[in-house]
Design a protein that fits this description.
6-stranded mixed β-sheet, alpha+beta, single chain, 3-stranded mixed β-sheet
Length: 206
């Protein structure tokens, strides 16, 4: 059995001889995922189980999804909002992950005919936890950057009022903004909307 460090999604070595790792095709991964009661990411041909999410994490993810839906209803362009069950696929890497919330402009595009693998999010939201924070900030961010549509990354802490956004000003140049005031709002420049911090942290006890 392969063991993985949840913070990096890399194999953990215990100083013993390891059997050659079994690699899977994308099709094999999708078949297994369809039957599994757990969520898994598809990384380097490996099927990596995702850690459990706690209550505050799930509340924040749901709040942000609702906030995105309400805020984008008020603007002229159509946006489609997805929750945490939507897989995002990186064609150039042949890898797939889940985000906590995301938005698509106008029309979702999928890599597969079954509409499982989304490839054109404009905004992606990740709720940080101790086990995934490092991965979300670095490795996962770099994967998302391979998608041409991707313009804004939102990182939300669940242990304090803290929202960090990264907006793409031009190719290769990203602007960071941090909001910690619960009475303030988070601006999402890629679509021209704001979401109140109070909405994001509604019903979350810190």
């Amino acid at each position: 059995m392969n063991m993985f460090d949840a913070s990096t999604h890399q194999p953990v070595s215990f100083g013993i001889r390891k059997e050659p790792k079994r690699t899977y095709s994308l099709e094999e991964y999708l078949r297994k995922e369809a039957k599994s009661k757990y969520k898994h990411e598809f990384i380097n041909g490996q099927i990596v189980r995702m850690p459990y999410a706690k209550g505050p994490h799930n509340i924040i993810a749901a709040n942000f999804t609702i906030g995105l839906g309400i805020a984008t209803e008020a603007i002229e362009k159509q946006f489609i909002i997805f929750g945490s069950d939507q897989k995002v696929y990186f064609p150039s890497l042949n890898e797939g992950v889940y985000a906590d919330a995301l938005a698509v402009c106008e029309q979702p595009l999928y890599w597969d005919d079954e509409k499982l693998l989304l490839i054109n999010p404009i905004i992606i939201v990740e709720v940080l936890s101790k086990s995934t924070s490092r991965y979300d900030r670095s490795g996962k961010f770099e994967k998302y950057k391979t998608l041409e549509s991707f313009k804004e990354y939102v990182l939300v802490r669940q242990d304090q009022h803290y929202v960090e956004t990264w907006h793409q000003l031009e190719k290769g140049l990203w602007k960071e903004t941090i909001v910690t005031d619960l009475t303030a709002s988070v601006s999402l420049a890629s679509v021209g909307i704001e979401i109140a911090m109070g909405r994001i942290y509604r019903n979350v006890e810190l």
